[in-house]
Amino acid sequence: MWTTASAPASPPPGSPAARPAARPRMTEPLTTAEAAEAAEAGAATGPGAALWVDPSNGAAGDMLLAALLDAGASLAAVRQGVARLAVEPVALELEAVRRHGLRAARLIVTAPDSGTHRDLAAVTAIIARAALPPAVHAFAVSAFNTLARAEARVHGVPLADIHFHEVGALDAVVDLVGCALALADLGLLDAPARVVGPVAVGSGTVRTGHGPMPVPVPAVLEILSGAGAPIAAHPAAMELCTPSGAALLATIATSWGPPPALVPHSVGVGAGTKDPPGHPNILRVLVGTSADRDADGTPWLGEPLHRVDTTIDDVDPRVWPDLLEQLRAVGAADAWCTPVLMRKGRPGQLLSVLTAPAQLDLVCRLVFTYTGTLGVRVSTVQRRRLRRDQIAMPYGDAAVRVKRGYLGDRLVSVQPEYDDALAVAQRADVPVARVLDEVRAVARGAGPPPEAGPLSEATTA
């Protein structure tokens, strides 16, 4: 899909006003009347909505989009949004299939052969010119940036040298933009509770534009490790998770793990093209309303965690930053060091790690391996955290990821990612403090920033 290398005729789709809960007919296009009827059925939307994605048999862009459509997203809305993109004509159909005795929806994308090569700037410009809703635009740009950065890193080339090629480019555009449109139609783009389960990646080799590649391909590992995603064991000797699938999961996930506490409203099952004999090649989504509330009805998320502690006085202090980063990368919820005074006045560090039960053994193994400690203390704690989401705010031709926290339905925390803000500030030659302030203001829904700048133009397009 990617290689390394040495340009509207309908109103904006994806409005969150219509969130159909009814499953569309999979053997024929969704009619206007069916879309309206589905919208009236309603579904959970906004900060109270919740989503769980089950990629335990793998993930690809078309599988995820098919699952969202099967869960009630409007096929008509997705078609309308994709039609606004200035690319070759693309047709979308949804058909009913069976995978190991299970009913599923399969997305059929028909696109012409094309010799057009598009880099990241060209793809993001196409999305910007489509005049999609801001949240749809931001999600799609964030997913493409995640995908391109991973490819650039694993191939060791500048981001600008990453190119789409031929029909693979159209597939990726349809998958990523289509999923953004479907999530918006279900009211899930601003839902803080978007949980993704452990991801099956497969094994073996696969043929690519760069020749045979080991599975999981390097870009998938780069994306999932960067997002802190847990990987699930799977017996299939084939590619189960594609780079576009990994990028979508990383962009969707506000957290990783089992289904959150929710009241389910709809289930969607998306099928892959292949039908291997060893497992059902499907991805599932569960859409509902968050059920985490305290005694006075204020929603937040509660979860049991383990805390791992050990006190150390003989580790080179230069080891700590790398160890803390590795602990977070394998799925620890948090890791930190606290200065302590040990026996005979020796200065030391108290290493503390918060982790879910599924990662406890791996965390302990890392602590023993990298610190040389002879023992750790493990205790059970209860964590309460704000429901949150992560959005990408366009800034010029790039994007800044922003984490937002909700107490009930009230937005109380808006935190742009500093590394993203620094990168776009250096590119735009503006102070990073200005980028942080502008992105934070727009993410709060406060309208355009007081001073004109790259962000103002991007968010009002």
UniProtKB/TrEMBL annotation:
Tell me what reaction this enzyme catalyses. Answer: Ni(II)-pyridinium-3,5-bisthiocarboxylate mononucleotide = pyridinium-3,5-bisthiocarboxylate mononucleotide + Ni(2+)
Q: Where is this region: Disordered?
A: 1-28
Keywords, in A-Z order = Lyase, Nickel
> EC number(s) per UniProt?
4.99.1.12
- GO terms of molecular function: lyase activity; nickel cation binding
Q: Mark out the compositionally biased spans (Low complexity).
A: 16-28
Q: Does the keyword Lyase apply?
A: yes
Q: Which InterPro entries match?
A: Ni_insertion (IPR002822)
Domain of life of the native organism: Bacteria
Q: Which GO terms describe its biological process?
A: protein maturation
Report the function annotation for this chain: Involved in the biosynthesis of a nickel-pincer cofactor ((SCS)Ni(II) pincer complex). Binds Ni(2+), and functions in nickel delivery to pyridinium-3,5-bisthiocarboxylic acid mononucleotide (P2TMN), to form the mature cofactor. Is thus probably required for the activation of nickel-pincer cofactor-dependent enzymes.
Membership in a protein family: Belongs to the LarC family.
Name of protein: Pyridinium-3,5-bisthiocarboxylic acid mononucleotide nickel insertion protein
